[in-house]
Structures are given as C-alpha cells and as structure tokens.
Amino acid sequence: MKKANEQRDRIRLESLAHNAMLEHGMVPGFSKEVLAELVKIKEPVTEFKEAGLVDMRSVLWCSLDNDDSRDLDQLAAAEALGNGKVKILIAIADVDAVVKKDSAIDQHAQQNTTSVYTATTVFSMLPEKLSTDITSLNFACDRLAVVVELEIGDDGSVLNSAFYRAIVRNKARLSYNSVAAWLDKKGPMPKEMAAVKGMEESMRLQDATAKKMKLLRHLHGALVLETIEAQPVFSGDKLVDLIPDNPNRAKEMIEDFMIAANSTTAKYLASKNYVSIRRIVSKPKRWDRIVALVKEHGTTLPSQPDSIALEKFLVSSKKADPSRFPDVSLSVIKLLGSGDYVVQIPGKTSEGHFGLAVKSYTHSTAPNRRYPDLMTQRILKAAIAGNPSPYSVEELRELASQCNTAENSAKKVERQMVKSAAAILLEKRIGEQFDAIVTGAADKGTWVRIMNPPLEGRLYKGYKGLDVGDSLRVQLTSINVERGYIDFKRVN
C-alpha cells in the first residue's frame, strides 16, 4: 500500500502533464508518420566527406549542462592567442543534417516549436532517438556541427568571428553543479575533467574570458536578473519537495558564450543580406512602475527606459541584500515583459533585446530543443555555403507567429505543472501564512509568489491597491492539484 501511494504522485503528475499539453494546444506524442520516418534513420552521421567540412575532432571540446540533460546542443573550447586575446569555439549540433525541412519530423517540430519540461515528463520537440543520440553532441561520439569561432579581446569584446561546418568530438561531459563547485573552490575537480589533459586549463580560460564578456555587456546596460525556479524532488516516485534551481558560475559562463554566439550569428546573417528570425525584448511598456518600484529602494531612474541606469540599481541591490535580490529581480522581469520572435529584413532597423542590451539577437544554440534555432541553423548554413535561403519572408513570418504562440502555450503547461506539484505538497498546509511578493496585477487577476516552496498563486482577496513588486503577507486558502490552482488571501 505504501509503495502504491508513493507511485501515485509521479503517475498523477504524468497524467496531468499529458492533459495540460492537449488543453493548451500542444502535441504530447509523435504521429505514425514521424515514427515511420524515424525508423529509417539508423545510425548517427559517420561519413564526413562533404566539401567544406573542417575536421575539429582533436579540439578539447566539452559539454556543460544540467546533471540529467541528455539533449546536448553545444560544446565549447578555448585557446589563448596572446596579448590577452582568446579564441572561443562554440560547436552547435547540426540538427538540420538529419531533420530535413518539411519532413514529417520537421512538421511535428513546427507544431510545438519547443521541448516542454514538466515535473515528471519531458515532451521533446524531436524524438529522443534524435535529440538524445543522433543529433546530440554526446561524449566520445563523432558528430556534425556548426562552429562559431569568436576572437575575444582583453576587454571582453568580440574582435573577429567566423562560421563553418565541422566534425567534432566531445572529450568531456561536464555538469554545471560540479564545475561551479570546483571553480568556487567548494568541491574537487570533476573526474571527467581530470581525465583529459589540458581540460583544466581550457575550463579556467573559458571562465576568465566569460567574466570579461559579462562585465562588458553589463557596462553597456545588460541587466543582472536572477529568478528562482522550482525543481521537483522525488524519493522514488513520491514527490517530497520543491527546491530552487539557483544560478551558478558554470551556468553563467555558458550563458555568456551563448549570448555572444546568438548576437554574432544575427550580425553575420545581416551582413550577408539574409532574412532571419530575431529574438527581441521591447523597451518596457511599464517603465513607470519600474521607476516607482526602484524609488521605493531609494534610487531614482530616468523617466524614459534606460537599461544602464536600471543595471546600476540591480547591481547595487544585489550587493546590498543578496537574499532578497530574487524578489526585486522577479518584479523587474515581470514588468519588462516577455520576448518575441520577429522577422528581420536586411537593412531594416532592429528593436533589439532590452534585457541583454544588444541590438542584434537571435536564437541559434539549441536546435534540438527550439524550432527557431533550427530555422536559424538552416539559414546560417545557406549563408556559409553562399546558397539561397531555405525560407521565404512569408514562411518566416508565419513560423515566427507560430513560435510565439507555441512558446506561450509551453510556458503555461510548465507553470501549471509546477503548481500542480506544489499543490500536492501544500495539501496539508492550508491555513498557513507566508511572506509574498506581487508578480502580476491586471484585470484578469492578481498573482503573488511565495519563497518556500518557490511558487506563484492567485490572490483572490485583499488585492486592491497592489501592484507588481509590492510585498505582503498571505494565507493559503485552497488548492486544486488537477488544475494547478493555488489560492491565497491577504492578511494584515
């Protein structure tokens, strides 16, 4: 009986996740056409005789991802060039080499446009035979990749760049947590790193270079933002906790490299006059509320959106009270609004990415997980080869719209499933009180976030006069596991 009860949580959440996918217009499984096409793909690509391929299997490539990640989209390597300059190499899995445009697998990927990650289930954009094997840059496997080569100056700027197709081989499969602990001198060198001669030096060079790149971006107004995402913890099949997935040094290092790769890719495609997909975050429409929120902390911002001024406040806020910074950061993120995919016509002005302080930005580094990255990869490969773009402007506009819609749906599924998991944990805590922060205030409802466990819920009573960023005390009044509903009321 005890074992049956423990299995109930996982089975219950798996069923709810499947239903949530359908409810939000997502496809939870693969069609018979996709599976029939998949059967014909027997082995990873092993023949490398195409013109223009560069053999880079001798490079000290490593992957760096979550402990449980199986879809490895990118590898990185570093080489000192002298005079403070460093060559950073980023290899991105050549998914297009296997997943052809307009194939059954490609058409499925167009529907969801992203992998969806829930407490118990990953609804992969591509079949796992591809995303975790044939198109994944797995340890000790020869793989096709698109390589972004960046020459980084001593100040962290990108001095030169190059793009080419290559053969790569992952020499070390590393994880964020163990590498971060080692870099922070809180843990031993990962054994996977110690087993490869020169990998320690490469990782330290990558870390030092990423710090310079990050510093330069923040000087230009890129925002220091930090949120706490809830990760479920199971004991067997029983849900026992939700814990925060905290940022760390290794994660930030890869983020810095991916931002540089995405920005450089966007600029390269523009220089070659290719229409592309851009990722933009507009100047915040609720800048006035950001100004008011920051003023409560003793800082005055300009009346017009200014990322550099906002960044200075965020840095000082994090330094002054790191434990409360996620609350401040979350409020700013909610007020900034979400990003969108748009079509960029060469020669037209780009709106840019306000939060990253870059004018040219695309998504290109996760083609196993996001469809915009796969589209960008196809356009990039055409640009490298000097071939016409595989997409018309109208195709890109339709697909960009689909990606925006599906990404929004995927986020709803993921949020609902976090709340369903939290509701299971909170079933016996109705009536308890929590410190909270307002994360949403609109006609459709007011939302608050508590920190233990880290989750959002609806404030159904006592919400008048509240706005994003306000702190308050709330009481848990009801939960609904099936719908992922968690309701609070304000208490004095």
Secondary-structure map:
Elements: H1 2-23, H2 32-39, E1 54-55, E2 62-65, E3 74-82, E4 85-93, H3 104-112, E5 116-117, E6 122-123, H4 128-134, E7 142-152, E8 158-169, E9 172-175, H5 176-183, H6 191-194, H7 199-219, E10 229-235, E11 238-245, H8 249-271, E12 276-280, H9 287-295, H10 307-320, H11 325-336, E13 340-344, H12 371-385, H13 393-426, E14 433-442, E15 445-451, E16 454-461, E17 471-480, E18 485-491
Parallel strand pairs: 1-8, 2-9, 16-18
Antiparallel strand pairs: 3-4, 4-7, 5-6, 7-8, 10-11, 12-13, 14-15, 14-17, 15-16, 17-18
Helix pairs in contact: 1-13, 7-8
Describe this structure in words.
This protein has 492 residues and is of the alpha+beta class. It has 13 helices and 18 strands. The protein has a five-stranded mixed beta sheet. Strands 14-15-16-18-17 form a five-stranded mixed beta barrel. Strands 2-9 form a two-stranded parallel ribbon. A hairpin with a 2-residue loop joins strand 3 and strand 4. The protein is globular. The model has no long low-confidence stretch (mean pLDDT 90).
